[in-house]
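WARN retry 2 of 3 for item q-0093 after timeout on previous attempt; input resubmitted unchanged.
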Amino acid sequence: MVTYEDVPQRFNVARYFLHRHLEEGRADRPALYSGDRAVTYRELAELSNRTAHVLRELGVEPEDRVLLALSDGVEFVAAWYAVVGMGAVSAEVYTYLHAHDYAYYLDYARPRVVLTDATTHGRVREAAREVGFRGKLVAVGVSELEPGEVDFHHAVCGAPVEPILADTPKDQFALWKFTTGTTGRPKAVVHCHYAPYLSFWNYAQEVIRYTPEDVVLPVPKLFFGYARDCTALFPFGVGAAGVVFPERSTPERIFELVARYRPTVLVQVPTMMRAMVEHPEAHRYDLSCVRLATSAGEALPAELYARWKQKFGVEVVDGIGSSELYHIYISNRPGEVRPGSVGRPCPGYRAEVRDPEGHPLPAGEVGELWVWGETAAVMYWLDRGKSVRTFHGNWVRTGDLFRQDADGFLWYQGRADDLMKVGGVWVAPLEVEECLLRHPLVRECAVVPELRGGLTVPVAYVAPRDPAQAGPELARQLQQYVREHLSPHKYPRQVRFVEALPRTPSGKVDRRKLRETAEPSGAAAEPAGPVSASPF
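OK item q-0093 returned
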């Protein structure tokens, strides 16, 4: 276990995870695979150095924010290391947002520079006009630029190759991680240079045990800190390599990339696991190169774990993390997986299930999870109230409901703010969802509260395995199934069929969007005709 005190007083993330390899004889090892290229640590460091010089010429100073609105690729990784290496602060956003979303990020982050590409540039440009953005737009691979906009490749070709590595204190701000925004506008949690180092040692090394021979393939995109760290930070800690690709992740694309690069670690989310298991030609694909898959971002049902393991023979190490605590803080261990649980605390972390007054609860009881860890963020940017409610020294109120069994394994029970009181009794939507997922005709589902005549009732959104079966008869079957397996008051008062659940960019079910699609409060409380087509 590595502690805060073990981190040198002067510590720079980019120096340790990238530039150190040039000093220690690993300059010619592959750092990234992209398309037909194997990019070495030397090549990546040189591109990062040139990028840092371009940013400095554009006025970026230590602690300034730089926003990355880039698709996954070598430029993304080089830019990220350039920003944190020169002592500025990196923040990354999803590449398929609307202009008004980018306007929010520009106004909130006030970055000195935004890096864009062909996917994002037009919408970021529109957002910049909307908010009167005065910084610079640097575009990667965009052919038509307006006056004042900077062509990335042209600029870096003429930039010096010498490194710009700030002599940063370990407590200097290094990066922002945005919350997922399922219940409101995303907020940035602020982390210092020491946090990635602690997470690398206490999770990546103590739990996943990266080796120099590992090749890591991510399903989520790199704007999501879970994917970026697992692909382009943790492997770099041991001189291993990651795979980066700009396209959206689909089962077909992931199978293709596995065949091409033969990764040893697959960074997964349950949604893609289900899609790969259910792919009609899944039996044709060989995943024997993968020594393990990680899973995070949403709950991994035990039934999906079993189906994945049976189909592909690959161990899945499920865990839970958050932007507030930098990365994963509770995880199963390879060879010690308890399906359906998220495992036990990682080295360097403590977890307690507490009641609303903050008192620890005994094993088996459901309460809010509090986690102690030295990677706790400094604050939510520009939100003092939320910071005070969430951060208590190194203790973090996660807002997640859990129970802990007698062996110390933790079992996710949903979000505290998702709880609904039905007939005067609290109901956890996840409990109803897990019950529905055991029904053979259900592919995925989500349960949300809805007001009916002033009373709260549970409503289930269900994606059936066979869309042709969606209808009143299946709705009645599912309601009866829940009645038979749970307390009767927990059954969904209405079942609405959808083709797929809406999801946030990080892959979590977007419950806010489901609530926004709820029917008027005067709708009947007992089953009405289910919706047969997706409203999304």
